[in-house]
Design brief:
By secondary structure, the protein is of the alpha+beta class. The protein contains 6 helices and 3 strands. It has a single domain (7-106), classed as Arc Repressor Mutant, subunit A. A 3-stranded antiparallel β-sheet has the order 1-3-2. It comes from Flexivirga endophytica.
Length: 113
């Protein structure tokens, strides 16, 4: 069984963030397609990054013949980050209300309705 990886640690690496960006932009990609986007990395480096992202629950893989297809795991992202985002939800709600109030104050003819 694969060891669980902290999703914040997984996205701390710039190469893994770039891989996630590619998957978000292009959808499902094979390991070869991902490797082509990172010519400075050897195949084992690509695989190691993908294993870390899988262990964090941020991507999932599907085997199709000899190819491994990777894609963003939306449910994994939700499970990994929703509790953290929710913790700060009140702050953002309050901050957005203050921003709205400030905008209305700058333009007396404008309402928040």
């Amino acid at each position: 069984m694969t060891e669980q990886v902290d999703p914040f640690r997984a996205i701390a690496d710039p190469t893994r963030r770039s891989m996630l960006d590619l998957l978000a932009e292009r959808g499902t990609l094979t390991v070869g397609e991902l490797a082509a986007a990172f010519p400075e990395l050897v195949a084992s480096g690509i695989s190691k990054h993908l294993m870390t992202l899988r262990a964090a629950g941020l991507v999932r893989a599907r085997k199709d013949g000899r190819n491994q297809h990777y894609e963003i795991d939306r449910d994994g992202w939700r499970a990994a980050f929703a509790p953290w985002v929710q913790r700060y939800g009140d702050y953002w709600s309050t901050a957005l209300e203050r921003l709205s109030d400030a905008t209305v104050a700058d333009d007396p003819g404008r309402t928040t309705d």
